[in-house]
Amino acid sequence: MLDLLSLLLLCSLLSTAAPLSLGVSRRALLSSPLLLASDPLVSSPAPVRAPPPPPSLPRLTAIILPTYNPSTHASCVSLLSSAFPSISLLSSTPSSATFAFGPADAPDPSFLPGVSSPSLDGGHARLTLRHDPDRPLPAPALDAESPPQTALAYVQIAVPSFRASQIVKFGGEVLSSYGYVNALLPSGQQLRVVVGDSPDPLPYVALRPATAAAFERARASLPERYALVPSPPPLFRPPASDPSFSPPPPPSSAYLSGLLPAGSPGGFGVLLLPPGYRGDGSDEGRGRFALPRGRRGVGRSDARLEWGGGEEAIEDALK
């Protein structure tokens, strides 16, 4: 319905203008400059907000997991492809495979969440599997009795659904599955899988510095060297839901959120776990999260991080 002012302007337009031909459409008439100028909803178009400048510091873009030999590598590739239907194999060679839960390139500038095609989205974190023929032996698995050492504790994954049976089928191991799943890849690295929602189903990696001093140094230095900002850890389920399905990190941990390509928080991040983290649930607040006795590992020490095209061993990143 046209308001009174619009109707008067329309009558004025019709009385002064040349007679309209029958070929003039209603759309052309209603898009007349005089009529549009009278409508407050369209006379002042909303300003286009320019995206913030990209961060000058390198972004965390990938976690690189060694697979040690061709057989283990092939098993890990099959496991990820089968257990997580929403994951995509971006590239593959006999010695390397890169996965992501969406396009890894920077998003198209015209992308609008909820409006644009998901194919225009981008900036998703990558998980790379790689075996080095010159380094066929894995680093020893760490447990609660191991000497203090920097370690990749686990890779966090949050997806609406996954196939736990495929983890076992392709040589992995399900350590626990009460509410959420702790699983080992055939190469020995741990995945923590939560059934929930996340903008990127690969939200962060959990690292354990070797000492309290290294923990404090990493918490202070990582945001200075890389595009990371202190932030509350992400939620994958409603806050009021049972924490058994998505346990919070240990109280003494520190979460550093990665920056998205546009420069806002919410990208691939790092969870720094306290040096005393044992991975048995005792430092997560509830004993019912405990892993089976004898399988209380806290990760491996030979993973690598990729920062904007460069690579760095986790020992060097957390110095």
Describe what you observe in this structure:
Residues 1-17 form the signal peptide. Residues 233-258, 274-303 are annotated as: Disordered. Residues 233-252 have a biased composition (Pro residues). With 319 residues, the protein is α+β, with helices and mostly antiparallel strands. It has a single domain (60-317), classed as 2,3-Dihydroxybiphenyl 1,2-Dioxygenase, domain 1, CATH 3.10.180. Helices cover 21% and strands 24% of the residues. It has 8 helices and 14 strands. An 8-stranded mixed sheet has the order 6-7-8-5-9-12-11-10. The protein has a 6-stranded mixed sheet with strand order 2-3-4-1-13-14. A hairpin with a 2-residue loop joins strand 2 and strand 3. The longest helix has 14 residues, at 70-83. The protein is globular and about 85 Å long. It starts with a helix and ends with a helix. Residues 17-54 and 280-298 have low confidence and may be disordered.
Write the topology of this structure.
Layout: H1 4-16, H2 26-30, H3 33-38, H4 40-43, E1 60-66, H5 70-83, E2 88-93, E3 96-100, E4 126-130, E5 151-159, H6 164-169, E6 173-176, E7 181-184, E8 190-195, E9 204-208, H7 212-225, E10 228-230, E11 254-259, E12 265-272, E13 304-307, E14 310-313, H8 314-317
Parallel strand pairs: 1-4, 5-8, 9-12
Antiparallel strand pairs: 1-13, 2-3, 3-4, 5-9, 6-7, 7-8, 10-11, 11-12, 13-14
